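Customer ticket, subject: "Can you confirm the structure for PNPLA domain-containing protein?"

Message body: Hello, I'm evaluating your service for our small team and ran a test protein. I'd like someone to confirm that this is what the system normally returns, since I don't have a reference to compare against.
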Amino acid sequence: MRFPNLGGWLGAAAFALSPVVAAMTPPGAEDQACRPVVPHDADAGIAITLAGGGTKASSFAMGVLAASVTNQLELSRDPTRFDSSLFWQSDAVSSVSGGSYAAFYAYSRLIRNRPEAGAPQPADKNLQRYFRDCIPAGLQSRFSPELITAEATRRGMPEQDLFCPTPVGAGSRADPEALAAARAYWNGEGPRRDTLHQQFVRCHADILTWQRCEFGNSVGARIRSNTTYGALVGVSLLSLPMAWVANTIFDWPINLSPSRIVYREGIGISYGLEPVDARALERDISEAAQVGAVRHFVIDQGVDRGETNFANHTPRDNAEAGLLDRGDDLRIRPDPARLTFAGLASLYADGRQSPPRWVINATAAPSRSILGWTGRNDTNFDRDIFHMSADQQCAGGVGAINVDLALPDLENHDRSLQKGRRNASLLTAVNASAAFFDANQRVYGQPVRFGVALAQHVFNLNWGLDLRNLDEAGEAKTSEARRAIHLALPAPLYLGESYAAYVTDHDPVYVRLVDGGSSDNLGAYAPIVEGVKDVIVSDHAEDKGGSMGDLCLLRNELLIRKGLHLHVPGLAGWPRGCYDELVLRRSSRRMAGTTQAARDAHTALEAVGDAMDAHAEPRVRSYPIWGWPYPFLAGCVSRDADPDSCLRGPRTRLWIIKPAFDYPDWRRRQTVEQRADDRVLTRCGEDDTLPCESSAFLARLLAGKGAIDDNLLTPIFPQDSTVSMTINSYADLVGAYRELGRHYTAIATRELDKVRAEGAGSPRFAALLCHQAAHPIPAAMADKTLGLSLPDYEFSLEKWTRAERDAARYRRDLPFVGCSTLGLPLFAPLTVGDRVPEAF
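Agent reply: Thanks for trying us out. I re-ran your input and got the following:
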C-alpha cells in the first residue's frame, strides 16, 4: 500500500503503533453492525417519517405530528396501545434535520411530563394540548361567518376563541387595552391557554435571531433580524483565528463556530422551552425567563452557570416580578436535564403503552477535513446513515458509537449530569441531524461542492459534530497512539493518517456527523428496509421544480442496496426522472468496495441513463407542484419490478405527503376576487380544498409584493427556499405550513385506517392506486414548462387540464374502483441501443 510522502509515512507509523487496527464494517455486513431501528413487530407496524428542510420542514412536520396525535384509527386500532391516535398506534417516528426540530418539540414534552422513577403519579401522555392553536386575528377578514363556524367546529373551539389577538410589547410600548385583551386571551383556561405552546413556536420561528420573540414580517422586524445577523457575522469574524488554528493548522475535534451555537440554542429555545403565561409572547426570552413566563431553562452569566431561576439575582424592576439588572453576558438556554438518551429510554418502560420510537437521523461523513471536500457527493445509505435512538447510536459503516461518552469536552456545557456521569443532550443530536451548513455536507456535486466547502471552512460556518470513535462500552476503536499522532500533526501531515484510514477502510479516530439530508433526507430508508407495513413519508424539503429528488434518491438506494422497488403510480413516467446524473451518481460511492449485487444494480441504472442520453431523452422530470390534486400519493415498496405487485399485498405501503396544491383550482373554486390581487375565501377545510388558515394566509400573501414568481406566475408558498425561510421565518408562514401538513395527514390517516382494517391485500389500497394510476400527475421535461398563463392562471400542459385535475381530485365519497393492472410498463435494465419506454 502506498502513502503520500511524509504524511503517509506518519499515517503508516500511527497504524504500526496500534496493537489492533479495527476495520470498518465489511461491505454487505452493515445490517449486522447495528441493531434494528424499528421494533421487531414492525412488519405489521406504522412509521411516521419527517424530512429535512430547515424551518420550512419543521413547520410542515409540526402539522404532521399535530394530525397524528388528534386523528384516531377507529377501525384498525390496537387496543393494547395507549390510545387510538395515529401517533400512539405507530412504532417509530424517524426524523431528519428540520423534521427533528418538530420531533424534539413532542418528545421533550413527553420526557418532562414523565415523573422521575419512583414517583407516585402516572406519566402525562396527553400531547394534544401542545398542538392546539388559534388563527392570527390579521387573517379574520379573509373568512365569511359561515367559514368561521365550520373551522371552529373542526378545531373543537368556541367561535370567539378561533382568532387570537396579536401579542403586543409590555410596558410603555403597549396599548394598555390591547395588552389587557391579549393577556386575557392567553391567561384564560382551556383551549386558549393551550394555544400558548404553538404561539411560542411561531414567534421564535426565526431560530437564528437568538432569543427574540417576533410575530410580524414588518420592515422593523427585518431590520432587527439583519441587525442580529450583523452581530453574528462580527462574532464569527472574531472566532476565525482560533478556528483556523484548531481546524486548519491542526485537526482538533473542536467546533468553534458561533453560528452553530446560535443555531442549536435557537432550536432549543423555540421547540424545547415551554411558555407559562401571555408574557412569554411579549418579550425576548431573557425577559420572559426573568418574570417566570417560561420554564425549562438554565442561566449562564459569568460564574453562575446552570441555575434554573433568578432567586440569587438583583431585581431591576419590582413591578415586573424581578427583572434583574443584567450584564451583556446573561444567557438563557434550554435546560438539558433529562433531555438525554437515557431520558428518552425512560419513555419505553411501558411496553406497548409507550410512544413510538424516536429515531434521529444524521450522516456519518465518509471522511473529514479537505479529504471530504474534494470527494464526490456520493453516499451509501447502508453505511452512512447515523441513526440515534434511545438504545443505540450507530451507522452501518462505523458501527455503534456511544454518543454520551464520545463528545469532546467542549460539548460538556450541553450535557446533563445524571447518575454520576454526563449524558449528551438530545438537542446536540438534533443539531447534528440538522447541520446542513458544513464543509463535509454531501449534497452538492463538484466543483460546486469544493467551493462551498472551502467558503464554509474559511468563514467558520461548520455546524457538524465530531465524535470520538468509541464503542458502546466506551472503549476506543483506535489506539491512543493513533489519536495522539493525529492531534499533534499540523497541516498537511495529519491528512496522511486520515487518508491511510480512508483508503484501507479502517476505523477513523473521529467520526464527523453532518445533516441527515446528506444521505436519506426523508428518514424513510430504515423503516422500509426493516419491513414496516405502512410508512407515512412527509416529503417537505424544498422542491420548487417538482423533481422529487429525495424520493428518487431513496428509490435508487433501495434498489441498489436491497433489491427493493419503489412504485408511485400517481406520478406519470415514474421513475423516469430518477436517472438524473446528479441523483444517480450520489449512489456510486466506492462501488468497488460494495457487494456484487449493488454493483450490478448500479450498472443497470447507469445503462438506463446512457440509453436515455442516446435517444436525447432528458433525465430530469418535473411534476407541477402548483397543480397537485392529491392530499397524498399512494405508493408501495416490493421485491417485484412489476408495479402491479402493489395490488397484491405489497411489502410496504407508502403514504407520501408533500407541500403542494392545485393553485389554479384554489383561485377558481375556493376564493373570489374583491379587487385586483385581493381575494377572500369561499371554501376551505374540506377534503378537496386547502385548509382554512393556509388559504387565508395565501390570499393575504398575494396581496403583497414579492409573493409571486414572475417567470412561473406561481406563489412562493408552499415551495419557498429552505435557506431563506430558515433565516427569515415568521409566525403566519409557520401556521400556513403547519396547517397544510395537518390537513393532508388527517386525510391520509383516515384512508390508512380503512386500508389497515381490510388487511394485507386491501381492496381499498388497490383502488387508491388504480385511481391515481388512471389520473397520474404528468411530468414535464423541465420545470420552466410548468408556468401558468394569463388571464386564467392555467397550465399549458396538454395532459393536465382543469377537467383532468378535477377527475383526479380526492373526495371521501369518490367511488374508487379497483383494477387488475395499473397499466404501467415493467422495469427492465436497458442498454444504450434499446428504446427508452415511457416508464423511464
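A couple of notes from the result: The first strand starts at residue 46 and ends at 50. The chain has 31 helices and 29 strands. Feel free to reply with more questions.
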